Amino acid sequence: MRRSLPVATVAAITSAGLLLAGCSGKGSSDDSSAGANAATKGVVNASDEKGGTVTYAMSDAPESFDPGNTYYAFVYNFSRLYARPLTTFKPGPGTKGEQLVPDLAESMGKPSDGGKTWTYKLRSGVKFEDGTPVTSQDVKYAVERSNFARDTLSLGPNYFQQFLQDNDGGYKGPYKDKSKDGLKSIETPDPQTIVFHLNKPFAEFDYLVSAPQTAPVPQAKDKGADYTKQVVSTGSYKFESYQEGKKLTLVRNPQWSAKTDPLRKQLPDKIVLNLKVAQSTIDKDLQSGNTMIDMAGRGVDGQTQAQLLTDPTQKGHTDNALGQRLVYTALNTKVAPFDNVECRKAVEYAIDKKAVQTALGGPIRGDIASTVLPTDIAGYQKFDLYPQKYTGDNLDLTEAKAHWKKCGAGNVNTTILARNDRQDEVDAATSIIGSLKKIGVNAKIQSYPTSKYFSDYAGVPAFNKSNNVGLIMMQWGADFPTGYGYLQQILNGKAISQSGNTNLSQLDDPDINNLLNSAIANTDQAAREKAYGDIDRKAMEQAAIVPLTYFKVLMYRSPKATNMVSTSAFSGEYDYLNIGVKK
């Protein structure tokens, strides 16, 4: 749920630090003079100063800190402090942060067999926090547990399950595999080499292995769903303590070595994440310096936003960034009357997007959207199949009522889901309820916490069916910065799962599925990007997603934090890899 450079143009890692040239200095600049949007253009408060504590806060709690059992961009970002995937993104502002580089692997993957086989060599000398050497078998095990033990670990994407060669549905993951041989499609010919055999070419596979699902896991210390409480670190920090739903504390990992890791700097002594803190409190603590990072990267709340934008000094501490994200409403194609495309088209016309935009915080939080692909994803094509017309402030409902009459549903009752710790999302859902009532749709809102939204409610088809859920509020960012990395998990029928599902519309259109499969096999980047635009149009013809806004985040940049970079690779959030603290 995360986040478009061609793999062929990716630059190699050097042994120098990668926080841009300005990051190598000992001193740090004054954040107050940096100005608004400074972190989207460069590194703010660049410094290599060590020591102190960096404090994060979050209004709820993540579903999991397990790198193999998560799908939130901010956990992908944060987990790199303690879990090293095969590849990752080079810290850099804006689109410069989309540059893919080797992490646990010593180089990018070596494709063969027309892109169906990918080979990686692990860096020598990487150790777990207990001093045990990391091997290719640990990476293989990590992929097997995260993609195939879906009854235990259901929250991450299932790309490997879809694309590995020998996945015929028989393998149920390492917890149930009696043979203990694992997947034949992942080979480990020696402790430093891992080979993936795919059932079809995958031109963007280097992006796929940037997911934390490839971060190694020692089988002997895997505790299944409880692994989230004490992840075994390969990064620069390790778990010191975890009070579920309250606080996570990371400390320096003594087994980490800069000789095997040119990306990380290990600057602060300690990293503390406080959970379930009211957003208004987080905003105040960011301004006072008691908190340095809003973990979820969602930005300040409405009241704080109004204060910041009317105070030139405070506005100078803000960053307003696009993050390859879309705010939308998913229409459940498996629940009546939204199983009828005409009913869905009526909703496309009926939702007052201007009113929703206002509820979300106004234009500074995103322009009104008409496509599934955001404007900052390669492949985006500008079009609008359901143009809205206004007379003054009033939305013209002629088209909406015509399609609703054609679908023949009459007056209906339905449910819309939203996350209760995201007030802007609840406000947007409330606005949508008011819009739909005008065409005969009586919706009631049911709201649930972020920590359980996909595992127990919105991402569970059985729950949605039994609770008559016709509409679901969603915000989506690309898994990796390409059209495929954005579209696959929300449009492909193969991505539908029984828990942790992100194809909330449960759309399973053969044409879209086939187009996605053929696009990712094409080694011609321009042809792939054209295909992504075509897929977007087909998805909008199915009217399973109502695009609301191309999301922009307004974040407050703590003047006490160093190496602050707003990066497109992680949905416009700050890059968490090397944030330090000014003393």
Shape: globular
Q: What do the pLDDT scores average to? A: 91
Q: β content, as a range?
A: 15-25%
Give unreliable regions as ranges.
1-30
Helix/sheet category:
alpha+beta
Largest pleated sheet = 6 strands, mixed
Could you characterize the architecture of this molecule?
The relative contact order is 0.18. A hairpin with a 4-residue loop joins strand 4 (110-112) and strand 5. The chain has helices at 73-79, 136-148, 159-163, 205-208, 279-288, 302-309, 312-315, 341-350, 353-360, 398-407, 423-437, 453-457, 461-466, 483-491, 510-521, 525-542; strands at 53-57, 87-89, 100-102, 110-112, 117-121, 186-190, 193-197, 237-243, 247-252, 270-274, 293-294, 318-331, 366-368, 390-391, 394-395, 412-419, 441-448, 469-477, 545-556, 561-562, 580-581. It has 583 residues and is α+β, with helices and mostly antiparallel strands. The radius of gyration is 23 Å and the shape is globular. The strands form 6 sheets. A 6-stranded mixed beta sheet has the order 13-19-12-18-16-17, with helices on both faces. Strands 8-9-10-1-11 form a 5-stranded mixed beta sheet, covered by helices on one side.
